Amino acid sequence: LIPSHSPYLLIGGGTASFAAARSIRARDPGAKVLIVTDEPDLPYMRPPLSKELWFSDDPSVTETLRFKQWNGKERSIYFQPPSFYINPEDLESAENGGVAVLLSKKVVHMDVRGNKVKLDDGTEISYDKCLIATGGVPRNLQVIERAGEEVMSRTTLFRKIEDFKSLDKVSRNVKSVTIIGGGFLGSELACALATESGLEVIQMFPERGNMGKVLPEYLSNWTTEKVKRGLCPCFHLTLRRKYIVKTDHIVAAVGLEPNVDLAKSGGLEVDSDFGGYRVNAELQARSNIWVAGDAACFYDIRLGRRRVEHHDHAVVSGRLAGENMTGASKPYWHQSMFWSDLGPDVGYEAIGIVDSSLPTVGVFAKATAKDTPKAATEESGTGIRSESETEDTATSPVASTAPAPVVGHKDDYGKGVIFYLRDKVVVGIILWNVFNRMPVARKIIKDGEEHADLNEVAKLFNIHED
Description:
Layout: E1 5-11, H1 15-27, E2 32-36, H2 47-50, H3 61-64, E3 66-68, E4 74-76, E5 98-102, E6 107-111, E7 116-119, E8 124-132, E9 136-138, H4 142-146, H5 149-153, E10 155-157, H6 161-173, E11 176-180, H7 184-193, E12 200-205, H8 217-231, E13 234-238, E14 249-252, E15 256-258, H9 263-266, E16 277-278, E17 284-286, E18 289-291, E19 296-300, E20 304-307, H10 311-325, E21 337-341, E22 347-352, E23 360-365, H11 373-380, H12 385-389, E24 415-422, E25 425-432, H13 438-447, H14 454-458
Parallel strand pairs: 1-2, 1-8, 2-5, 8-18, 10-14, 11-12, 11-14, 12-13, 16-19
Antiparallel strand pairs: 3-4, 6-7, 7-8, 9-15, 17-18, 19-20, 21-22, 22-25, 23-24, 24-25
Helix pairs in contact: 1-10
């Protein structure tokens, strides 16, 4: 039995949708919230699928989907156990409200003026307020699509729990895997798969080095060398010459196409530059309709029009949409962050617009044993880095008085801060092997001032202290 009406209807069952549900219930404790997802799983977090789950010692990890956080505590990738939710058929009569999830159902049509949607089985559900958090689908390469069924059957497009399970199985049963893509997902999966003994891992990408679209070229090259040397026994091929690569399986990690299937029936604008549903600074698309997560092209009152594909953004934007669905009228300004570890020794956290086509200024220092992702998270006792992070903004930070030591090796980028500039103002910051300083970075971006000397600003992060 599917409820015919839900005061709060959330389309999509990912991180943004769950964050919105939690936020709605916090502000309206008796709220009745219905999540409709085309996946067979209750809401779960995606980052561990390409990160922690691969490093688990538990042979049954593909069943348990539990992972050790960096602080040693274990948790499930599901945000909440099944007991947290109520049955969809009980939603309308639930005295104290609750959150219900309709699994394996797809919303195929929106009637915005009538405040209702239609599912793929023909059922209609009316709503008072609606959130679209439909995420996106992984892009494929035309050359793979054109190559026919046999090649497609040996290709993984990585996004969901089932993709993690099937790639895990493949990695145990083949001799070589080729990953196409040098971004976050491709680089993380290359490092993860390289832990499988006896598996040859080849990573290829059109940029000159790992994370070439994000990191300045010198740092991208250094990272590529580091990854080649010890992090993972991968071959890296930049696609500037013709190679013939023999491989048993392909993973295409070449980006995400935001899911905007409801744009036509809902009369919703799709942004022609960034993709995704175009929403205002309060994440609203039309009356009673909000959008959050990967599918939202929003107006950031600090940094302008954007679309962001990261876990922490899904948390932040879902939470804000939920607040605004209950009448908060708050604009988007709280910068989400994202992080990536390329193994236990190199990790970074980033905030704002980090795009290697922008001018950058990097300030580096020599790293010590404490300056690794593992050491930092053990010390701070936090688990999933982004979630512990999303609340803080620093008050005026105080610069470290320690003198800047001379970095012995000119190309040893042990730890440091990279500033990304637009019109002389810092719009993005990467903390390279510098941890638990994100509130400082958030304040610098929020203040939006021109800085005469970024070396001085870098001192706020205490990178020169041992």
